[in-house]
Amino acid sequence: TEGPLGLFKGVDASAARQLVYSGTRFGMYDVLKNMASDKDGKLSTFSKVICAASSGAIGAFAGNPGDLAMVRMQADGKLPVEQRRNYKNLFDAVAKIARSEGVPSMWRTGVVPNMNRAAIITVGHLAAYDVCKESLVSYGFKDGVPTHFSASFMAAFIASVLSNPVDVAKTRLMNQRPELGGPVYTGTANAITTMIKTEGPLSLYNGFTATFSRQLPYVVITWMTVEQLKKLMKDW
Question: Cα separation of 113 and 121, whole Å?
Answer without folding.
Answer: 12
